[in-house]
Amino acid sequence: MPNAELLMPGGLQELTAALRRATPSSRLLAGGTDLIRSMHRDHWEPDLLIDLSGVRELGYVRLEDGTLRVGALTTFAQLQADPLVRRHACCLGEAAAQVGSAQIRNVATVGGNVANASPCADSVTALVALGAEVRTIDGGGRGATRSLEQIFVGPGRTSLAHDEAITEVSFAALDADHRATFAKIGSRSTVTVARLSMALVVKLDAGEGTVSGAKVALGAVGEAAFRDARLEELLEGRPADEESARLFAEGCMDAVRRAIPGRYSLPYKQHAVLGLAYDAWNALGLCDRCEPAWG
């Protein structure tokens, strides 16, 4: 990068000043695991790189008034190990544990994963299921909050302005009545990009043995991770039993069919999501383990 200027702000005030100098050709550098690879692969060079690693106040996990707040520079290794994430957003912790290798998880950040806008980003699928919001700051020092879905425009594209940086993602913390999980399928068993991913959150009424408030997100299906309202309505008030698991799995197949009609990968993903749905359902521990009837 012989012609790219590098700025290394040491705090939010310096970050705001750096963002004022940004142009559409400028880039923010967090963990760098996606950005550097893209620069080498596509042979492009930014005019300005803003290295966020010195803005240390953006690395945190906090529980405030029922909201879990995660700083944009929190790494996946930190998310994987954090007790608040384990207790109040275990699907995010499980997703973080499946991001790349241990070396990548030590440097890759949740804010960078969101900003990269990859349809197969593991943490994004979990964050969509959790109903996450994204907090940003721009070169004028103005803060803004919008839903995660409002951030994504398409694969690799976001609604973020060129002088705007993600500072935080936040969502309602899950309580003891909730169950949540993340599952994915890749080309390998470990260190693999998701070919299909799912995050599932439900509230269990142990007395009645029913589930409610389901949130189902699918990733690596279409242009961005998304929640499926039909699936969520299907589970509302249903018994936590094998029949509900079957209906859920069939609903997942229908969701994939509606998401990517005519896509060459549809037959594979429709078949794969059946097993993935059962894996997710069984991980919640709602009833005795059940399996799909293949055939």
Strand-helix topology:
Elements: E1 5-7, H1 12-20, E2 27-29, H2 35-42, E3 48-51, E4 61-64, E5 67-71, H3 76-81, H4 83-88, H5 90-97, H6 102-107, H7 110-116, H8 122-129, E6 133-138, E7 143-147, H9 148-151, E8 152-154, E9 157-158, E10 164-172, E11 178-186, E12 194-205, E13 210-219, E14 226-227, H10 229-235, H11 242-259, H12 266-284
Parallel strand pairs: 1-3, 2-3
Antiparallel strand pairs: 4-5, 5-10, 6-7, 6-10, 8-9, 11-12, 12-13, 13-14
Provide an overview of this structure:
The protein is built from 12 helices and 14 strands. Helix 10 runs antiparallel to helix 11. Helix 2 links the parallel strand 2 and strand 3. The longest helix is centred in the last third of the chain and has 19 residues. It has 295 residues and is an alpha+beta fold. Strands 4-5-10-6-7 form a 5-stranded antiparallel sheet. A 4-stranded antiparallel sheet has the order 11-12-13-14, sandwiched between helices. The chain has a 3-stranded parallel sheet with strand order 1-3-2, with helices on one face. The chain has 3 domains: 50 residues, 2-Layer Sandwich (Uridine Diphospho-n-acetylenolpyruvylglucosamine Reductase, domain 2); 116 residues, 2-Layer Sandwich (Uridine Diphospho-n-acetylenolpyruvylglucosamine Reductase, domain 3), CATH 3.30.465.10; 107 residues, Enolase-like, domain 1. Helices cover 36% and strands 26% of the residues.
